[in-house]
């Protein structure tokens, strides 16, 4: 271990003592304390006692005022010279390893929309009743996240670390772009619409291989994947309108009554029960943005032929016939 690195370690401990560490630096130092106590031999009681004393000071918050480095220095230079090199070398190795970070999860409730900024500066707008899981190794070789629900991504450009969104069997991969992913568990379709940039959507096969679905998606192209059949369709769309839920919009394109009812329930945080589904596979394109729920139901009834009973606690929709 060279003199320069020793100075860096000393400086890091000084910053930790003074409370000037970044979150990453703090995690590295505290992870070293934990690993040191766990991995040294049980017969080295004096060594373990010293480490325990330091670690307890850190956990109590008193280690920031007391000099952590001064506590360690007598220990490193003290009783047995044989301990100095192994312990210092261990510190050198440990502080060069990134701290282990658990995966993170972000969720929203019905009627809630949340903005999330990831460690790479990617921005994610999470729609109602959705969950985004960020992998523990995010921003290392890849930037992996999992989505259940709907989210709009503004991905920070990075050609060396692909950004991958997993939704069930599908993977959406980008380098830097803006796109919308709709993948609610209760629905039978996953939709990926591109606002700008380029996106590749792939499917995981039964043998574990990854197969690209169709061509690369660009501006205003949407891939609609049916989970039951495994089939997909790529079509032109208005990706801006599809993602206007970020500003309170409620735009639907070729959506079924069931999909519209579920979306309105999430959007307005209001229970909606669909009593019967239409006999025909009716699909509708409709913009209900800016409407109150009763007004949205009126417009939907005029367009589709549904009837409904609305109360402040619950709405019931009858959709046996559609037109």
What does this structure look like?
- By secondary structure, the chain is α+β, with helices and mostly antiparallel strands.
- It folds into three domains: 3-94, no CATH class; 104-239, Sandwich (Jelly Rolls); 249-318, Phage tail protein beta-alpha-beta fold (3-Layer(bab) Sandwich), CATH 3.55.50.30.
- Helices cover 30% and strands 29% of the residues.
- The chain is built from eight helices and 18 strands.
- Strands 1, 2, 3, 4, 5, 6, 7, 8, 9, 10, 11, 12 and 13 form a 13-stranded mixed sheet that branches.
Topology:
Elements: H1 3-17, H2 23-39, H3 45-60, H4 68-77, H5 84-94, E1 104-107, E2 114-117, E3 123-126, E4 131-134, E5 143-154, E6 163-167, E7 170-174, E8 178-183, E9 189-196, E10 200-204, E11 210-212, E12 221-226, E13 232-236, H6 239-242, E14 251-255, H7 257-268, E15 272-276, E16 284-287, H8 293-304, E17 307-310, E18 315-318
Parallel strand pairs: 5-6, 15-18
Antiparallel strand pairs: 1-4, 2-3, 3-5, 4-5, 5-8, 6-7, 7-10, 8-9, 9-12, 10-11, 12-13, 14-16, 17-18
Helix pairs in contact: 2-3, 3-4
Summarize the structure.
This protein is α+β, with helices and mostly antiparallel strands and 323 residues long. It has helices at 3-17, 23-39, 45-60, 68-77, 84-94, 239-242, 257-268, 293-304; strands at 104-107, 114-117, 123-126, 131-134, 143-154, 163-167, 170-174, 178-183, 189-196, 200-204, 210-212, 221-226, 232-236, 251-255, 272-276, 284-287, 307-310, 315-318.
């Amino acid at each position: 271990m060279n003199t320069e690195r020793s100075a860096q370690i000393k400086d890091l401990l000084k910053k930790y003592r003074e409370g000037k560490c970044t979150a990453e630096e703090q995690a590295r130092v505290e992870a070293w304390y934990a690993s040191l106590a766990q991995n040294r031999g049980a017969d080295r009681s004096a060594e373990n006692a010293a480490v325990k004393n330091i670690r307890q000071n850190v956990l109590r918050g008193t280690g920031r005022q007391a000099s952590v480095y001064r506590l360690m220095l007598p220990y490193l230079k003290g009783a047995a010279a044989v301990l100095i090199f192994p312990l210092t070398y261990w510190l050198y190795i440990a502080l060069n390893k990134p701290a282990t970070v658990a995966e993170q999860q972000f969720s929203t409730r019905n009627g809630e929309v949340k903005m999330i900024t990831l460690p790479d500066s990617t921005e994610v707008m999470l729609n109602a009743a959705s969950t985004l899981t960020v992998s523990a190794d995010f921003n290392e070789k890849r930037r992996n996240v999992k989505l259940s629900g709907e989210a709009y991504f503004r991905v920070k450009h990075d050609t060396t670390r692909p950004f991958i969104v997993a939704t069930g069997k599908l993977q959406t991969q980008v380098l830097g772009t803006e796109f919308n992913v709709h993948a609610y568990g209760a629905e039978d379709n996953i939709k990926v619409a591109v606002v700008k940039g380029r996106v590749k959507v792939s499917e995981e096969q039964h043998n574990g291989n990854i197969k690209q679905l169709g061509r690369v998606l660009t501006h205003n192209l949407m891939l609609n994947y049916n989970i039951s059949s495994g089939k997909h369709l790529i079509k032109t769309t208005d990706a801006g309108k599809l993602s206007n839920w970020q500003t309170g919009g409620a735009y639907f394109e070729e959506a079924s009554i069931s999909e519209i009812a579920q979306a309105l329930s999430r959007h307005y945080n209001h229970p909606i029960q669909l009593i019967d589904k239409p006999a025909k596979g009716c699909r509708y394109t409709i913009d209900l943005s800016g409407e109150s729920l009763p007004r949205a139901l009126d417009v939907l009834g005029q367009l589709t032929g549904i009837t409904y009973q609305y109360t402040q606690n619950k709405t019931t929709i009858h959709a046996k016939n559609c037109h």
